[in-house]
Specification:
Blueprint lengths: L1 H14 L3 H12 L1 H23 L10 H23 L4 H5 L4
């Protein structure tokens, strides 16, 4: 029994260094692309929400300003990034830059 325990500990010691790279490899093979797509969708939905609520900042009023002012403290961190993404110039390559 003692030899079996020592043998198992030696096997664990050999594979301890391989655990993290193996986990990262399997993550990359299985769910990495899904995570990237979900982050993109989250960004699109967040941009749409901010456009609907704070569109009056760029000249598209949808809701009365009362609701916008109530939600403003929660959206302030993303507001500058959103304004830059909405107001930047786009060309044909931006439309084709999606994954095939």
């Amino acid at each position: 029994m003692v030899d079996l325990r020592k043998w198992l500990q030696s096997i664990r010691g050999r594979f301890a260094n391989c655990e993290k790279p193996l986990k990262e490899f399997l993550y990359g093979m299985t769910v990495h692309e899904l995570v990237v797509e979900i982050r993109k969708e989250k960004g699109y939905l967040e941009g749409l929400f901010i456009l609907a609520v704070f569109g009056d900042l760029i000249g598209l009023p949808f809701f009365p300003p009362y609701y916008s002012m109530r939600l403003l403290p929660y959206v302030v961190p993303a507001l500058d990034r959103w304004k830059r993404s909405v107001l930047r110039e786009r060309d044909l390559t931006d439309l084709v830059s999606q994954d095939l």
